[in-house]
Write a structure and sequence with these properties.
single chain, 496 residues, five-stranded antiparallel beta sheet, 19 strands, 22% strand, membrane, EC 2.7.11.1, ATP binding
Length: 496
């Protein structure tokens, strides 16, 4: 196809320079002569436009993506046909692709990599909500604008290529460095396929390289199907266990073990960004921008200076000159609201905290069935010592049932070695149980891994899992504190 630089499409869009090319189309920087602004034009190849099926796919892409309006998705502005050649008009992003960024920098700073992954996950969440699957998530299809924000583009991969597999009619899908196992096998492609691809993009941002290499694209694709992903922690030892767990969860080959939706992935990434920022003490670049958008549950993990805007810090320091008492109160509040309560020390030498989703905690009441303050369950794992989960209150301080409890979902599973608990009602007793599947409907379906006797305000419990991975861990309360009406858990942490 001859490059038509200088061509005026539909009497309006002047093609100024070619900036990209793919199997179906070529992308140009162009100028909208009516609104007098730069745009990007995706011009379908002439040889493809003669194929009615390909032409319909191109039109379908324009209609579908035009429905999306999200700050991290490149916006479709217009679509049309000129001299029987269809085109799509998109907002023009001045910047570089994420792939270019990785090639230039190598491994990205950890908070920056997480921030980009959050923005991409949010974009995919918006697309999936409208039943639009990207099908080709890769850093080449993520643009970094002049302000450092990530924007996903190119929702146009041909559907037949994914339905018929990699070798249909000798056609090539394109790079398979990021292809999901089910996509490589020609199985139905859903939003979970995009999640897998984003997990691989995150892996590359953290390590500076894709996980698999091969003689050709099919060989690489088959590695995604058959081989375990190289351990991201081995290639980037300084990343947290929580971040490594997110990568593992996103790139699980089995769909039942992979994140079910982009919203869940984004939520865990938000928690991890807060954890990594707390470890570093501060953040820079795009991570700073994304930190401002975190929900309250994640922001509570942040160090005080990361939660308070810089100008506000300056104002507080000025006020401090005449209000020393206020500074003392602020400092004390900051001390109390760290990433873990002062009495809980999850950074035990040789062990690491297991990352749990913000909604991983649930009450457990198999004998009563009426629940044990289910709305408070997340308070046990929110890293806030002032929030607490409590059982219901029982008259005369005695349970009228064999027990009640609180369990956490440590998906996809972990061989935890220790549990650390904090309670405001010491003296209760029970046990810790674990389960691979479920959670079980009855206590008989669980495996006992520890006993709890006269629980202290802050206590470390060794778990006898024999190296076996369990998904669910249950704190089972059988006896209330002497003279007490309920039992509480203000903090629960698993260590491995």
């Amino acid at each position: 196809m001859t490059t038509p630089v200088g061509t005026l499409l539909s009497g309006r869009y002047r093609l100024d320079a070619q900036i990209g090319s793919g199997g179906m189309s070529t992308v140009f920087r162009a100028f909208d002569t009516v609104l007098e602004r730069p745009v990007a034009i995706k011009l379908m190849h002439r040889e493809m436009s003669s194929d009615s099926d390909q032409l319909e796919r191109f039109r379908r892409e324009a209609r579908a993506v035009a429905q999306l309006n999200h700050p991290h998705i490149v916006q479709v502005i217009d679509a049309g046909e000129d001299d029987n050649t269809p085109y799509i008009v998109l907002e023009y992003i001045e910047g570089q692709t994420l792939k270019d960024c990785i090639r230039r920098k190598g491994r990205l700073p950890i908070p920056e990599a997480i921030a980009y992954a959050i923005e991409i996950a949010r974009a995919l969440e918006a697309a999936h909500a409208r039943a639009i699957v990207h099908r080709d998530v890769k850093p080449q299809n993520v643009l970094i604008d002049s302000e450092g924000s990530a924007k996903v583009t190119d929702f146009g991969i041909a559907r037949t290529l994914t339905e018929e597999g990699l070798t249909a009619d000798g056609r090539v899908l394109g790079t398979t460095d990021y292809v999901s196992p089910e996509q490589a096998l020609g199985h139905p492609v859903t939003g979970q396929s995009d999640i897998y691809s984003l997990g691989i993009v995150l892996y590359e941002m953290l390590t500076g390289e894709v996980p698999f290499r091969g003689e050709n694209q099919v060989a690489v694709a088959m590695k995604h199907v058959r081989e375990d992903l190289p351990d991201v922690s081995m290639r980037r030892p300084e990343i947290s266990t929580a971040l490594a767990a997110v990568v593992d969860h996103a790139t699980a080959k089995e769909l039942e073990r992979r994140y079910q939706d982009a919203a869940s992935l984004a939520a865990d990434l938000e928690d991890v960004l807060a954890i990594e920022t707390a470890r570093a003490g501060d953040a820079t670049g795009e991570a700073t921008t994304v930190l401002r958008t975190l929900p309250g549950s994640a922001r509570r993990r942040l160090p005080w200076r990361a939660r308070v805007p810089r100008l506000a810090v300056i104002a507080l320091l000025l006020l401090a000159a005449g209000a020393i008492g206020a500074v003392v109160l602020l400092a004390r509040d900051n001390t109390e609201r760290g990433t873990r309560p002062p009495d809980i020390k999850p950074q035990t030498p040789g062990l690491h905290v297991v990352a749990l989703r913000s909604k991983a905690a649930h009450d457990y009441d198999p004998f009563g069935g009426d629940g044990e303050h289910s709305d408070e369950a997340s308070a046990a794992i929110d890293d806030d010592s002032k929030s607490t989960w409590s059982t219901e209150s029982y008259q005369a301080g005695a349970l009228n049932k064999p027990g009640v409890g609180l369990y956490v979902d440590a998906a996809p599973g972990v061989a935890a070695q220790r549990m650390e608990l904090r309670t405001t009602t010491p003296g209760w007793s029970g046990a810790v149980y674990a389960a691979e599947d479920g959670p079980p409907d009855s206590i008989g379906g669980w495996t006992k891994v520890a006993s709890l006797n006269d629980v202290k305000r802050s206590q470390q419990i060794s778990l006898d899992t024999a190296g076996k991975r369990f998904r669910y861990y249950l704190v089972w309360i059988e006896k209330l504190p002497e003279g007490g009406e309920n039992a509480t858990i203000s903090d629960l942490a698993l260590l491995k």
